[in-house]
Write a structure and sequence with these properties.
CATH topology of the domain at 12-63: Arc Repressor Mutant, subunit A
Shape: globular
CATH class of the domain at 12-63: Mainly Alpha
Order of helices and strands: HHHHH
Strand content: under 5%
Mean pLDDT: 81
Oligomer: single chain
Helix content: 55-70%
CATH superfamily of the domain at 12-63: Winged helix-like DNA-binding domain superfamily/Winged helix DNA-binding domain
Length: about 80
């Protein structure tokens, strides 16, 4: 399970483009969760998490998890 981790979130405009489920997956991805760990935490299948991740990447204009982490770091709330 993934708990008690601080993570950056996208800026307001980008948050608006993510569904609630995508936002939850985004937070867990940025916390370093694997697809399997996120699926277990949210009681979903790993394919569902993979689909959410692909949609998040597309909406935020990133090509994968590493770029997502850089993007999240660039858009931290202070």
């Amino acid at each position: 399970m993934l708990r008690g981790l601080w993570v950056a979130t996208p800026n307001e405009d980008q948050c608006d483009s993510l569904t609630e489920a995508e936002h939850t997956v985004h937070v867990l991805l940025c916390a370093g969760g694997s697809n399997a760990a996120i699926a277990d935490t949210l009681h979903l299948g790993t394919e569902t998490i993979r689909t959410h991740a692909k949609r998040i990447y597309a909406k935020l204009g990133v090509s994968g998890r590493n770029e997502l982490l850089v993007h999240a770091g660039d858009h931290q709330h202070h």
